[in-house]
Amino acid sequence: MDKEINSQELEEKLEEKDQKILELERKIEELNSENESFRKKAHSYKELIHSSPSMITLLKGKDLIIDIANEPVLKFWKKDRSVIGKPLITVHPDIKEQGLEQLLLNVLETGIPEYGYEMPVYITRGDTKELTYFNFVYQPQKNTKGKITGVAVIAQEVTPKAVFHQKIRESEYKYRELIHSSNSLIAILRGEDMVVEIANNAIKEVWGKGKNVEGKPLFEILPEMIGQGMPQIFSKVYQTGEPYFAQERPLMHVQNGEMKLGYFDFVYQPQTNIHGEIDGVAVIAQDVTNQGLLNKKLRENEKQLRELVNFMPHKISMTNAEGEPFFYNESWIQFTGKTMSELLDDSWHYLVHPEDRDFTISTFQRCLQTGEDLELELRLFDKKGDAKWHLGRAIAIRDEDNVITSWVSSVTEIQKLKE
């Protein structure tokens, strides 16, 4: 009876051991499967690194030992695979003096990645030390327990692109410096709302709305321009691409809280992007208020003078320094029956009696050459064709340098005196 019990216990123990063996075999199979999976992943991981066009380096420990370096980085360094297992500082001592070693150690210590965009790096390749530019990331690497064991460096050399971007930045800097240092009033406006992108100090001073105008629509800054036709002009330039020019354009504008009249020479020039599409308008202007006011006064004086001259009974005319007429007063028009255009288009010689013509012309030419005043008697034909005696006088008008700029002549009828 005892033997039967012992035999049963033995069978149970053997069966229990068989179960454990089967369990161990199952676990071993699972481990083998996991190991195979890990090997495949490790192979894929390495394949990914070595087949990548980016420069990839894996560094281990505080000495930054090169654990993996793919072909692109070896080619860039001009090194072979003998660098594997060596400290990065030994292979490239340049990185220490430029602070890159410290960046790598910071990533190793903090676990926070570091990024660089078009970062300038001096690197020795062969016997030559070169300035290169990189986009890169320094990424912490951890073991299965989450402990940081190294740093992955993934980089792309972007030297041609960086040099190009640098030239663009330098060009833009010079462009902006030229705008801001100019005495002209310059602004660059973008979009249909004419948002101020750039405005130099000269134009801000004239606008009188403070320094912080960038980013605001033009007519929000200068609402007083809306009723003076400016939005329509800007819109036409923006829509058609045709520049708009103006000289001594009068504009009312608020400056320091006070409405003022100003005169401006300006051009509104369409601006295009790299695709040739119009995306804004450039304003280049000069404040010519003093000149505009002066010219306005001169025009008013000229108008008054013309009215005065036209009111006079004497026949008044003006010529340039070469003796070419550019003005006849109303008395000439009434006497000859000709319009101003007809008098200017035709030679005045035909108005002189043939017997007096040669002497009159020669005398006038002599005065043009010598600058002396002219005085003579001559017969002129009226609108009826009758010759009437006149006393003609002409004097030269000179500038501040005593140079003749024009001639003024007065012709008075003396027919009754002659009779």
Description:
Strands 2-1-5-4-3 form a five-stranded antiparallel β-sheet. The protein has a five-stranded antiparallel β-sheet with strand order 7-6-10-9-8. It has a five-stranded antiparallel β-sheet with strand order 12-11-15-14-13. It contains 14 helices and 15 strands. Helices cover 42% and strands 32% of the residues. It has helices at 2-51, 71-77, 88-91, 94-97, 100-110, 159-181, 201-207, 218-221, 230-240, 289-311, 330-336, 340-345, 354-370, 415-418; strands at 55-60, 65-69, 114-125, 128-142, 148-157, 185-190, 195-199, 244-255, 258-272, 278-287, 315-320, 325-328, 374-381, 387-398, 404-413. With 419 residues, the protein is α+β, with helices and mostly antiparallel strands.
